[in-house]
Design a protein that fits this description.
Number of strands: 7
Distance between the termini: 47 Å
Radius of gyration: 30 Å
Number of helices: 34
Helix content: 55-70%
Largest sheet: 3 strands, parallel
Strand order of the largest sheet: 1-4-5
Shape: globular
């Protein structure tokens, strides 16, 4: 549901009405927060697992949308705790100024409330968690934001007027000149403060001048980094450090049930969702029916999770939904129907314990605002107050009452329709006093919001590095060069922060990796052994990274592959190789966890490191392992490849597939550059030919899913051409196997198991597509490129390198005709397994188990079908139907 706030009060009576409504709602939510805190503190082992509605994440990323009350676009007013003032109270000259001030304050308060909610969730090492319905909604929303951000390039550089650009250059030049001229009055401490102020000013200017879509996407990327991803409850793996073994085990049981979503679980969730429709989605409510469906599914999952925990004797953990939707909260608070949560409570009682509005954190942020800082010093104007005290005590909503249940009912009623006795007793001078306190509170909130966005400690540290650099360069250097130096130094500091592997959500990342439905992209280096081994280990069926500590220890060893800056030299801040490699490893990890949107973010960050270096003509220093022997060339090859794969997996439009191919072209040209530099001799070009085929397949699947009546002959022809190019390259490499003095990366015998597996999987898909199209009498202009012998060869490779045989043992209990490899090196993903089986059916191959009837086909697809791309629903349903047709 979506709460549409009342517009600006038109008169004194309307203002009193809205004051009572808001005050009652703040008091009601405050009581819920206090009750939850009391429950948690009764036992030190008790834990609260918070789930976030999409609108709370939206508020963290774009508080300018959700914070203010905006009557034009129905902004939700999450930060407008006291109602807006009637414009009649102000003369025309003051009104426009008032609008800007109101928006700025509401934006800041909304962000602080959402940030406090996130920080509260993080305290037990828990990442941002959502119900399945809200998770799907969130990624749809931010997929659209990313699309708009890409279309609307960041204008922070191009639109800055000459005067401000000149100010930046001159300010930096003043620092450099006075340091070089040893101006005794310009001591380093004073210079550092001045320089830090300049950097903060530039950062704030760039933030303001960026496209709002770019700002929102950057904020989303930051949240993902802090939380190590955004996860569904079904992927949650509690931290060993913060959860007892009993609670951890029971939470993992519930997560696994939700992840598998078998028939019984799906039926329970459907029954719960149906029972909630009259509450969450009343027939009289016509706004945003898709949103109502999402809320119904989300509350059903919330009830199911808490009910199962109670049944599993895990009553010391609660799963609680945090939302910004006031209408949803009040609808639940008013419902007297049974909660079905495993006890005899009504739905409103369950919601009191398990659903919080972000206004429940108002009391919490008053404490934060009291500590608001200006250059690290507490603000003297900040005062400690509670949420109810924002209303200056003018309302009869005491914190302690003799009959709490009746008091809560009264608060909930007044949050919808205020009592006349309450609105009638409010006097004008009391309202003025309330707004005086509100103005003080909200102005301090603005200061604290800026403090979070522009961390003074961070800029002070960067300023120290820049001062050392300025002292070492020619004082006559122009302002543009100084500006570039400052921007690059800031970017390096940001990269080092971004690649820290936080314990927040670490277990959930690794749990999602353990249950991953796709292998990570086959990234590789032939000389960087630590990093390359991590890539290989991420693909092993026998999971290497079982705990966050196991991954974190290996992650920190990446420095052994890198140039190590001299810690005693302030001029040496070249951690770029380390950051680049860590971005790639994190990208591979998130890809293996099926979090491709995060993998793409890390790939983009790695690409930026290389492209900044090229633009500045500042080569990235790398570690040399032997005298005068270059170990690696920082061309960006693997970053471009990871970006190509991520773009392809997430593509929804023709343009995105074109983008994937463009990144692939860059990866190929980068490998050519590496070879010219005498490096990457063991890295094969055929990997890019294989990915080119994957892009052709993805584009075909996507187009077919969009228009099921269109056979897409031209795209099918492109698949055949791509497959033939791949086969030609492979044949050439096989011929090279017998040759001497051939680069090792150009011999097929040296191709890794990961690449051979990917080649086999893609060729199997081509064979199945060809068979499917023939069965439908779809005819293109290009002859088939994959014959039956190629299908046999592809299946042999998959049997040899993956745990396919072990996976199929679920269906065939007696001994198989071919023993499974004792130590397979590649995970057999659901996609590999399904195409292997259907490919074996097409080629009539006896090498592996094949279903013998329709029931076995349905059992196979029900057990292994998992969606990753946008077209997988169509793809796997078509594959199921085709398998039945060729029995």
């Amino acid at each position: 549901m979506r709460y549409i706030p009342k517009g600006r009060p038109l008169d004194f009576g309307d203002l009193r009405f809205q004051l009572v409504r808001n005050a009652a709602f703040v008091a009601y939510e405050g009581q819920k927060a206090k009750a939850l805190m009391r429950w948690e503190r009764q036992n030190e082992d008790r834990r609260v697992v918070f789930l976030f509605d999409t609108d709370v994440i939206k508020t963290l990323c774009a508080p300018w949308i959700t914070g203010p009350v905006n009557e034009r676009n129905l902004g939700d007013g999450y930060g407008q705790i006291l109602p807006q003032r009637p414009l009649l109270d102000f003369d025309p000259d003051e009104r426009q100024k008032l609008l800007g001030i109101e928006r700025r304050k509401a934006e800041s308060i909304a962000w602080l409330l959402a940030n406090k909610a996130a920080q509260t969730a993080f305290q037990y090492g828990t990442p941002i968690l959502q119900t399945t319905a809200h998770s799907l909604e969130t990624f749809r929303v931010f997929e659209s934001v990313k699309f708009d951000a890409a279309a609307e390039a960041d204008v922070s550089r191009s639109s800055v007027d000459d005067r401000e650009e000149q100010f930046f250059g001159q300010s930096l030049r003043i620092v450099a000149n006075r340091l070089n001229n040893t101006d005794e009055s310009f001591v380093p401490q004073k210079a550092g403060r001045f320089l830090a102020d300049v950097l903060r000013t530039v950062e704030q200017r760039n933030l303001q001048r960026s496209s709002r879509f770019v700002r929102e996407w950057d904020a989303f990327a930051t949240i993902v980094r802090l939380s190590n991803g955004i996860f569904s409850l079904s992927d949650f793996a509690p931290s060993d450090k913060y959860y007892s073994s009993h609670l951890k085990c029971k939470l993992e049981n519930v997560s696994e049930e939700l992840r598998k979503n078998d028939t019984s679980v799906a039926l329970e969730l459907a029954e719960l969702e149906m029972s909630l429709r009259d509450v969450v989605a009343p027939s009289s409510y016509r706004f945003g029916k898709d949103r109502l469906a999402t809320d119904g599914l989300a509350v059903a999952e919330l009830i199911y999770a808490n009910r199962r925990l109670a049944q599993l004797q895990a009553s010391d953990v609660r799963v609680v939904l945090i939302t910004g939707d006031r209408k949803l909260v009040l609808a639940l608070a008013d419902s007297r129907q049974p909660s079905q949560a495993g006890d005899d409570r009504q739905l409103r009682g369950f919601a009191f314990d398990h659903v919080l509005h972000i206004w429940s954190f108002v009391d919490s942020i008053t404490g934060e605002i009291q500590k608001a800082v200006s250059r690290g010093e507490p603000k003297a104007s900040a005062t400690q107050m509670s949420g109810s005290e924002l209303f200056s005590g003018l309302l009869a909503f005491p914190a302690e009452v003799s009959e709490p249940a009746k008091h809560l009912e009264r608060l909930a009623r007044n949050a919808v329709t205020p009592e006349r006795d309450l609105t009638g007793q409010i006097l004008p001078h009391e309202i003025e006093h309330a707004y005086e306190r509100w103005n003080e509170f909200s102005e301090d909130a603005v200061g604290l919001h800026r403090h979070f966005l522009f961390n003074p400690v961070k800029y002070d540290e960067i300023a120290k590095i820049l001062l050392a650099k300025f002292e070492a360069i020619d004082s006559r250097i122009d302002g543009e060069r100084l500006g570039n130096l400052a921007v690059e130094t800031m970017a390096r500091a940001r990269d080092r922060t971004n690649v820290e592997f936080s314990e927040i959500g670490a277990n959930s990342v690794l749990n999602a990796h353990k249950n991953g439905v796709r292998n990570p992209p086959d990234l590789m280096f032939d000389s960087l052994e630590v990093t390359n081994q991590i890539f290989r280990d991420l693909s092993l069926p026998k999971r290497v990274f079982v705990t966050s500590a196991a991954f974190s220890n290996r992650f920190e060893q990446i420095v052994e592959d890198c140039y190590r800056p001299n810690s005693e030299d302030p001029l040496d801040d070249d951690y770029r190789q380390e950051c680049y490699l860590k971005y790639l490893v994190l990208g591979a990890l998130f890809a293996s966890a099926n979090l491709w949107i995060v993998a793409e973010q890390h790939a983009e960050s790695a690409v930026k490191i290389v492209e900044r270096a090229n633009w500045l003509r500042d080569p990235i220093r790398t570690r040399s392992f032997a005298c005068d022997v270059k170990s690696t060339n920082m061309s960006g090859r693997e970053a471009y490849y990871l970006l190509a794969v991520s773009s392809r997996v997430r593509a929804r439009t023709r343009r995105r597939y074109d983008d994937a191919r463009n990144w692939l072209v860059k990866a190929r040209s980068s490998l050519a550059a590496d070879r010219e530099e005498g490096t990457a001799a063991g890295v094969p070009f055929i990997r890019f030919d294989c990915e080119d085929l994957a892009i052709s397949l993805g584009h075909y699947y996507h187009a077919r899913s969009e228009n099921k009546d269109d056979p897409c002959d031209a795209l099918a022809d492109e698949i055949s051409r791509s497959a033939q190019r791949l086969l030609d390259v492979r044949e050439m490499m096989v011929q090279n196997d017998a040759e001497e003095n051939v680069t090792v990366g150009d011999q097929y015998i040296n191709v890794t198991a990961a690449v051979k597996t990917t080649i086999a999987t893609n060729l199997l898909q081509v064979g199945v597509v060809q068979g499917y199209r023939s069965s439908k009498n779809y005819v293109g202009s290009v002859t088939h490129s994959v014959d039956e012998s190629e299908l046999h060869r592809a299946l042999d490779d998959l049997v040899t390198h993956t745990d396919l045989i072990s996976q199929l043992s679920y269906f065939k209990k007696e001994p198989l005709s071919h023993d499974a490899p004792s130590d397979p090196s590649i995970i057999c993903s659901p996609l590999i397994l399904l195409y292997s089986v259907v490919g074996a059916m097409v080629g009539k191959m006896e090498r592996i188990w094949r279903p013998g009837n329709v029931e076995e086909i349905d059992r196979l697809f029900d057990a292994f079908r998992t969606n990753v791309t946008y077209y997988d629903d169509w793809r796997f349903q078509s594959l199921r139907e085709y398998a039945k047709s060729i029995l």
